[in-house]
Amino acid sequence: MRQLPQRGSVAIVGVAESDLGVVAPGLTPLDLMGQAIQRALDDCGLSLSDVDGVFSAASQLRMPTISLCEYLGVKPTYTDSSYLGGASFQSLAAHAALALEAGLCNVAVIAYGSTQRSARGTFVPQRDQNEYDSAARPRLPVTGYALAAARHMHLYKTTREDLADIALAARSWAQLNPVAFDRRPLTREDVLNAPMISSPLGAKDCCLVTDGGAAVVMVRADRARELAKPPVWLLGAGEAQEHHSITQMADLTSTGAARSGAQAYAVARLNPNDIDVAQVYDAFTITTLLFLEDLGFCPKGEGGRFVQDGGIAPGGRLPVNTSGGGLSYCHPGMFGLFTMVEATRQLRGECGDRQVAKADTAIAHGNGGVLAGQSTLILGTSAAL
């Protein structure tokens, strides 16, 4: 059985974003990682000389940890650049926790940076293709997610209006976030009448394309309480990889989040009803719906009804993607690390107008590929330990 981090053995003690949206000309992914790392270290009162564990994944760098360590001028005792697409960062957090538990490092930094918006036209990410799928000329990743959305609609009578409610909820949260990329008013009609990208997903069902980076600092429990900010404890972690090509997905409406979530809940000794705030990967509106179901917040097929009428918006039954998510806050190629940043800030009570009252537990879920890799973290305050 795969070894998982022990409940409460490590904590997140620092988080930060780099510059977001459209960054200054000439900035590179490494520059954005460096910005975010320095800000995250400042957040917890540590310095670059304290860092001896470096964890990173990137779509624009072949050897992200090696490049990042050279850029920072650090020589860590442990590094990891395991790549699962947008699910990489929750997985790297679990790896960092195991390395910290084993004494392989003492201060672990997880970082990501991308200039995806600035580099459009000059950067073309390589995509693994299934030779049997290629003949159909899918426009990936959106074609794969559109297949999942269409299947969910067929089986469970989910509607485009239900998906629109997810986009509206994300925008409502973004309007409370001063650094969100798109805070403009958005109506259901705007979502439904937006240009169709891959039926049934229109332009407003799809994530932003932005620049940006983020960083998270983790330490063992024995050090966490000594630092500048209240520690946010890693209570549980899980990971699942089900397929690569969307045509090899056994059930287009059921993802590996059901398995990764079950692992995380078991270690955390919690269940979905215990979670105060959820940050789930929302590259498309359908991903939010699928993950709410598979992580146990509502039964399979009930996601459409769960999100209706502001169910996940401010004041709804469950606060979801309170930063505005990939749909309205930022999405620089991969979004997984940003769910961890927002979850940490919510648990520390730092979110201002969008702060969720009495938030002691949070889930931060990452998704990689076309619903291919799933990784889940459950985080908590000291009250949840």
Protein architecture, described:
There is one protein chain. The chain has 385 residues and is an alpha/beta fold. It has one domain (10-121, 208-384): 3-Layer(aba) Sandwich (Peroxisomal Thiolase, Chain A, domain 1). Helix content is 33%, strand content 17%. The chain contains 13 helices and eleven strands. It has helices at 29-44, 64-72, 88-101, 131-134, 142-156, 160-174, 188-192, 221-224, 257-268, 285-294, 303-307, 325-328, 336-348; strands spanning 10-17, 53-56, 78-80, 107-114, 196-198, 201-202, 212-220, 232-241, 277-280, 361-368, 373-380. The strands form two sheets. The chain has a nine-stranded mixed sheet, with helices on both faces. The radius of gyration is 19 Å and the shape is globular. The two termini are 25 Å apart. 58% of the residues are buried. This is Thiolase. It holds the Pfam family Thiolase_C_1. Residues 238-381 form the Thiolase C-terminal domain.
